[in-house]
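Translate structure to sequence.
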């Protein structure tokens, strides 16, 4: 009976915790929407906490706050996020040249819109374009970004472009097919890494409010 009571207590504790700081993500092709409920935090408090987080995390001269309206509870920021890839397609010959260009496409301009109400806020995080020097791959790679699953049409275009480049490099059909078979895992990792990066940013904001909230009365 005692063990049962302990389990019941822990279940209630976890339920209370997650209901106080619940979240939900809606994932689209190049956009993620996160809704966060923070109990016992009114609109004004959330607005103040969120602005503090922005002042710490958006310090580059390239970051721009386009709107910051306390009355409507709307904040809009333009910034740049960077991702790093570990899944290499290949590193030999012509393949190495393509790989080097692909992994250089790793900085993206984004737009964040934050809407604030009592006890909750919403983040709309949208990728806008690539922010790297263009070696001819920026648009090709950006078109392949699909955070809610690989876009097979864009994947086919990606492989056709690679195939044409490899042909010019006198790469035989078997090796070209092998190369293209590895492009999907690479693009999957790219999409998953970008999505994780976006979620981490959103959770960083959420967690900063929790931490700030615990020290409000010092």
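Result:
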């Amino acid at each position: 009976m005692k063990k049962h009571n302990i389990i019941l207590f822990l279940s209630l504790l976890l339920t209370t915790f997650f209901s106080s700081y619940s979240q939900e993500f809606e994932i689209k092709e190049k956009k993620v929407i996160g809704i966060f409920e923070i109990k016992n935090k009114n609109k004004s408090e959330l607005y103040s906490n969120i602005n503090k987080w922005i002042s710490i995390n958006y310090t580059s001269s390239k970051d721009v706050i386009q709107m910051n309206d306390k009355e409507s509870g709307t904040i809009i920021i333009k910034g740049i996020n960077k991702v790093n890839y570990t899944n290499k397609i290949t590193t030999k010959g012509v393949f190495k040249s393509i790989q080097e260009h692909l992994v250089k496409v790793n900085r993206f301009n984004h737009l964040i819109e934050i809407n604030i109400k009592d006890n909750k806020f919403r983040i709309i995080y949208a990728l806008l374009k690539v922010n790297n020097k263009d070696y001819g791959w920026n648009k090709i790679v950006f078109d392949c970004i699909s955070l809610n699953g690989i876009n097979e049409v864009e994947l086919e275009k990606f492989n056709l472009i690679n195939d044409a480049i490899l042909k010019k490099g006198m790469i035989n059909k078997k090796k070209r097919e092998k190369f293209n078979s590895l492009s999907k895992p690479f693009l999957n990792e790219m999409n998953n890494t970008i999505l994780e990066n976006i979620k981490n940013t959103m959770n960083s904001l959420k967690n900063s409010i929790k931490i700030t909230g615990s020290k409000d009365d010092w």
